[in-house]
């Protein structure tokens, strides 16, 4: 799908187009043109090369969706890649590529996330002066700022899930708990691979040596960098919480093992008395008890076993070992 937003200080036009070769007409009529393409094909990328003269390496990067966030200076234009994120059942990232020139901005999005571009299109359609009086670099700032801000609710949700997992570990230890912890650990790793390169990209922009990014817009990117730094703090906090959940699981497991071992040891000691007495009376010797108790000697041995086992159990209770 192709969406074009063309505007000047006094007029604007936002519409969907069917053919990329309509773009030069808007470039001639308006001082700023933003072309947004979602889920591009190889043919779309080749047409962009014909219309704008973009370098083949940059065009190829638009289709190779495993790229890191980065910014490249091609002289007449700046090429940027950033990773946006979403979290449903798991964390996933999708690539957004941008070509920023003197009077144009081309964005190529791997996924059609309407909440990302739609609010900006609406501002342009309404001739919002904050947007239409600035160049394409301001739109780039709005997009990157929105992408970075989208990370905050993701980490809030991850932290909530970690708290729930910790509660389950404490109340009902099971293998599912540790599986959930490692699942979240993988999700955080996916997000980490997207966030740190994004910070590097924003730092490159802040250096102020890129064409078509004004000093006025650089101030806004400083604010974006602060937000990105907050996201990194949330990322590190989530990693620590996950490590804490793993430690809690291991500690809880070890405590359970210790409790079981302690119970086995206590029962072994309690059952030691019947074993010793039974072995003693099992020898082929004449014992005085037989003379003393006669036919009741057998019951005397059983009673002795019971008494010693009971005394041992009471001793454990007094010591609070059970």
**Helix fraction bin:** 55-70%
Number of strands: 7
Mean pLDDT: 86
How do the strands of the widest beta sheet line up side by side? 2-1-3-7-6-5-4
Looking at this structure, what is the CATH superfamily of the largest domain? CorA soluble domain-like
Poorly predicted runs:
none
Q: Give the N-to-C terminal Cα separation.
A: 70 Å
Could you say what the CATH topology of the largest domain is called?
Beta Polymerase, domain 2
User: What order do the SSEs take from the amino end to the carboxyl end, as H and E?
Assistant: EEHEHHEEEEHHHHHHHHH
**How many domains comprise the coordinates?**
2
Backbone CA Rg: 36 Å
How would you describe this structure to a colleague?
- The chain has 322 residues and is an alpha+beta fold.
- It folds into 2 domains: 251 residues, Beta Polymerase, domain 2, CATH 3.30.460; 48 residues.
- 63% of the residues lie in helices and 15% in strands.
- The chain has 12 helices and 7 strands.
- The protein has a 7-stranded mixed β-sheet with strand order 2-1-3-7-6-5-4, with helices on both faces.
- Helix 2 runs antiparallel to helix 3, helix 6 runs parallel beside helix 9 and helix 10 packs antiparallel against helix 12.
- The protein is rod-shaped, with a radius of gyration of 36 Å.
């Amino acid at each position: 799908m192709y969406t074009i937003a063309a505007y000047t200080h006094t007029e604007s036009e936002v519409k969907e187009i069917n053919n990329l070769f309509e773009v030069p007409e808007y470039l001639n009529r308006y001082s700023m043109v933003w072309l947004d393409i979602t889920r591009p094909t190889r043919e779309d990328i080749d047409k962009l090369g014909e219309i704008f003269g973009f370098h083949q390496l940059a065009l190829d990067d638009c289709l190779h969706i495993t790229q890191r966030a980065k910014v490249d200076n091609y002289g007449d234009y700046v090429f940027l890649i950033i990773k946006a994120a979403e979290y449903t059942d798991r964390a996933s990232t999708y690539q957004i590529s941008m070509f920023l020139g003197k009077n144009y901005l081309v964005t190529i999005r791997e996924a059609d996330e309407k909440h990302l571009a739609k609010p900006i299109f609406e501002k342009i359609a309404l001739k919002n002066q904050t947007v239409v009086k600035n160049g394409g670099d301001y739109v780039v700032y709005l997009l990157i700022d929105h992408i970075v801000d989208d990370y905050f609710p993701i980490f809030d949700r991850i932290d909530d899930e970690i708290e729930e997992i910790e509660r389950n570990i404490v109340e009902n230890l099971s293998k599912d708990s540790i599986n959930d912890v490692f699942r979240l650990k993988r999700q955080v790793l996916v997000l980490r691979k997207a966030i740190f390169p994004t910070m590097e990209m924003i730092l490159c922009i802040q250096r102020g040596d890129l064409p078509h990014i004004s000093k006025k817009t650089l101030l806004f990117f400083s604010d974006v960098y602060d937000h990105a730094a907050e996201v990194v703090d949330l990322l590190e906090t989530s990693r620590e919480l996950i490590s804490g959940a793993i430690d809690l699981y291991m500690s809880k497991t070890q405590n359970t093992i210790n409790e079981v071992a302690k119970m086995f040891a206590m029962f072994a000691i309690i059952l030691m008395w019947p074993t010793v007495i039974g072995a003693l009376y099992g020898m082929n010797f004449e014992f005085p008890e037989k003379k003393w108790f006669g036919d009741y000697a057998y019951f005397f041995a059983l009673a002795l076993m019971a008494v010693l086992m009971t005394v041992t159990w009471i001793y454990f209770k007094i010591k609070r070992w059970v």
